[in-house]
Design brief:
The chain has 148 residues and is mostly helical. It contains 6 helices and no strands. Helices cover 66% and strands 0% of the residues.
Length: 148
């Protein structure tokens, strides 16, 4: 049951990410950084895709994804359509990876150390969902404040 709930949450929030990116009136506004807002919505989208593709897709799903975290924040002016496509691909990767897991797998140690100490796979998946939501909220505020 927990795996199904995690799948639903990731799909819901990745869909919302796609909607937020689509809602920008101007592609240029996706990349605006102003005053105390250090990251653009475009860079946060790239960061979320890279994070999920790595920790769920590669580590749990066995994909060949190679993460380039510095580029998640350095790239600029990636077209909106390309961002949306990356989110769609990420949704498929999450489903495929979580379909491979059993409820017992959630209690097992996550294959790599991400924080200062080892965690369970379930713990890390919950952390990733919360991380997605944290940045999704930032993107929502960025859009409403700066895309005028």
């Amino acid at each position: 049951m927990q795996i199904q709930v995690l799948k639903q949450l990731f799909q819901r929030d990745l869909n919302k990410l796609q909607q937020e990116i689509s809602a920008y009136q101007s592609e240029q506004q996706l990349w605006v950084v102003e005053k105390n807002i250090p990251n653009s919505a475009g860079n946060l989208c790239l960061h979320l895709v890279g994070n999920i593709q790595h920790f769920i897709g590669k580590v749990l799903g066995g994909t060949d994804f190679v993460r380039d975290r510095p580029s998640e924040f350095a790239l600029k002016n990636v077209p909106k359509a390309a961002l949306i496509k990356q989110v769609e691909e990420t949704m498929a990767v999450v489903d495929a990876a979580l379909d491979k897991l059993t409820e017992e797998d959630l209690e097992k140690e996550y294959p790599i150390v991400v924080f200062e100490e080892k965690t369970s796979t379930g713990y890390l998946l919950i952390h990733l969902a919360m991380h997605l939501d944290y940045h999704l909220g930032q993107i929502n505020y960025h859009r409403r404040l700066l895309d005028v």
